[in-house]
Write a structure and sequence with these properties.
2 copies of one chain form a homodimer. The first copy, chain A, has 12 helices and 12 strands. In chain A, strands 2-1-3-4-5-11 form a 6-stranded parallel sheet, sandwiched between helices. In chain A, strand 6, helix 9 (201-216) and strand 7 (223-227) form a beta-alpha-beta unit. Among the domains of chain A are: 13-54, lambda repressor-like DNA-binding domains (434 Repressor (Amino-terminal Domain), Orthogonal Bundle); 171-300, Response regulator (Rossmann fold, 3-Layer(aba) Sandwich), CATH 3.40.50.2300. Chain A is α/β, with parallel strands linked by helices. Chain A has helices at residues 15-22, 26-33, 41-54, 60-67, 84-96, 112-123, 139-147, 171-184, 201-216, 233-246, 258-270, 304-315, and strands at 72-77, 102-107, 129-133, 152-157, 165-169, 190-195, 223-227, 252-255, 280-282, 299-301, 328-330, 334-336. At the A-B interface, helix 4, helix 5, strand 2, helix 6 and helix 7 of A face helix 4, helix 5, strand 2, helix 6 and helix 7 of B. The structure holds a DNA duplex.
Chain lengths: 343, 343
DNA sequence: CTGAAAGCGCTAACAA
DNA sequence: TTGTTAGCGCTTTCAG
């Protein structure tokens, strides 16, 4: 490798440079660059030409400080690896598209303390609004958000009290409804497979709703299998083999997400089990990515894109009905029976 | 839904508020909050107590303007939906963990113009460094990056000239090596399935390297199938059915990514084809997520995590050998023959 | 339509 | 160890 030289650490250009190059006052240059209407076409031309020729990039830090306005929306999610969140983000991006607002993402890795840090960092940039996954935060994080004076939208979950607004589904209800669909199909020896969930509150709530509905029907969860780390087909396969080895008489497996559910389905197919006759399966999320297996896995659509969309609309003030902030939007989780719950 | 009230739009607290509450000068408060050593324990206590009691969150905008330092690294990638990029990001996050730097992500949706916008927006926040996927940008974007005066690392690809530094694999080489592995295994009627790639330069380069190596052996690509939109198992399945219908005599299918490759594998298995005897398959990326199928799809590991790691190290100046910037790091794409190329 | 003056909230640099 | 002064680069406000 040849000894490359460092790039010149040049002083960034300022409005003043453009002003001097164009012979127009800084103030007017500023007006042109902010696309304000009250500038004569002639000056506008001159300024734009000079700015372009110099390669001027405005300093938003100074601009934000002076104007007390920041076109940023903080978005705090547990993880980018989860496939679920990219879809939420795409909804947010879509809704923010022509609002002049820019989303800025931060990940917490499902750790409350890290979430607190990320929120603190973001708030210190004085964003226009915040979108945060989940309703459970540290006391400090809750206080910071509540005192921030900006719209705060908690997303994905509506089982609890929001700081300001919330948009999501009830995971308790999602768990309950899946349990009801399973019971209605006649399954009784039901196992659950999911992540260890010290801090995955939504998975926990789903399981609570699920067992609750089972118990209401006099059915007890027959087995449980937990895992740590990321979700993958292989993980689902492995867990399924394990739980069925321990309890071969299970007739239904409920997974905490579609990825491990699909892995479990692969195991069952390879083991020659009859799905959905001998054993039924269901996941959670409605990951389209995974359509394409011989059988469609039963799942619950978590409305991820729409959640992002609605949350961003609230933050950007697109919902115009006189109210500001403090909205509660509950979307309906839709159970899709696929091919893995018998009719 | 009851008529919730908007949150109080309170004036955010300033250093001055903390100063008054603690009876310590603004400057000293600032020192305490930046963890500087030259403050007596007593005052430190007082200040921290006051800051905490008030719920003070510093204003980084003002801080950045005054200090001319911003602890942000801009990261520009085509898409968050691609699964490939989250892994790069995790490498970046890991490397930046305790450097005091924070990554900020922006997506371009594979559009050069959108990339230019994102880069412009990011540079206007005067980040400490930039990490950008790919070597192809608009002229304006290239100029902005080159003139930014900060470290710029282009990642994922090394087939071309970087603005400053680059870290990645050679996609030409990746295509070539896969072609060689396929030819060595005796396959000759080879088809390619990939996205329409007006702007997916890396997929294009892979295909170029691939056909180049085939032609060097006197073999011509026997068929091509293109698609638009996101990758999914279903899409891979569908494309595979289509290409095999048109040309049933193909004995190998090379996919531009593992997701559609896995879908294709499902199709072939369901169609009762003998893999890898009758037909061989290969994808690209090395997505661990997809391990767990009966057969492991042949693929090329694109070293995504390591790319992110190294890029972030360059930006954060962690590589200490006297050089600053302008590095070229080529990682080796590793061909994994899996179970879908015969021995 | 254009310009001059006065900060935005913080920190560098220096003084005490 | 602490405080004072003078900006950072822009935009707001008000005057021409």
């Amino acid at each position: 490798m040849p000894p490359y030289l460092p790039p010149e650490a040049q002083r960034p250009l300022t409005l003043r440079d453009v002003s001097e190059a164009s012979g127009v006052s800084e103030m007017t240059v500023s007006r042109v660059l902010r696309n304000r209407a009250d500038v004569s076409p002639a000056t506008r031309e001159k300024v734009l030409a000079a700015a372009k020729a110099l390669g001027y990039v405005p300093n938003k830090i100074a601009g934000a400080l002076a104007s007390q306005r920041v076109n940023l929306v903080g978005v705090v999610i547990p993880s980018l690896a989860n496939m679920v969140f990219p879809e939420v983000l795409s909804g947010i991006s879509a809704a923010l598209e022509d609002s002049g607002l820019q989303p800025v993402f931060g990940a917490t890795n499902y750790k409350a303390e890290q979430e607190e840090n990320v929120i603190y960092e973001m708030l210190s940039w004085r964003p226009t609004g915040m979108i945060v996954a989940g309703l459970e935060h540290t006391e400090a994080a809750t206080a910071m958000l509540a005192n921030s004076g900006i719209p705060v939208v908690e997303i994905m979950d509506v089982d609890g009290e929001p700081i300001d607004s919330m948009v999501g589904i009830s995971h308790r209800r999602a768990g309950r409804e899946m349990a009801e669909a399973i019971l209605a199909a006649g399954y009784r020896r039901i196992g659950f497979l999911g992540s260890k969930m010290p801090d995955d509150h939504r998975a926990r709530k789903r399981l609570e709703g699920f067992t609750e509905a089972l118990e209401a029907a006099g059915v007890t969860l027959a087995a449980t299998e937990h895992y740590a780390g990321g979700s993958s087909l292989a993980k689902g396969r492995e867990m399924t083999a394990a739980i069925l080895q321990r309890q071969p008489d299970l007739d239904f497996l409920y997974y905490s997400n579609d990825m491990i559910g699909a892995g479990g389905m692969l195991h069952c197919l390879d083991a020659g089990l009859d799905i959905p006759g001998q054993i039924g399966l269901a996941g959670f999320n409605g990951l389209e990515l995974l359509d394409g297996f011989r059988l469609r896995l039963a799942t619950t659509d978590a409305c991820r894109h729409e959640i992002g969309l609605r949350a961003a609309e609230i933050v950007s003030g697109k919902i115009e009905d006189g109210l500001i902030g403090a909205r509660r939007i509950e979307l309906a989780p839709i159970v899709n029976r696929g091919d893995t719950i018998r009719a």
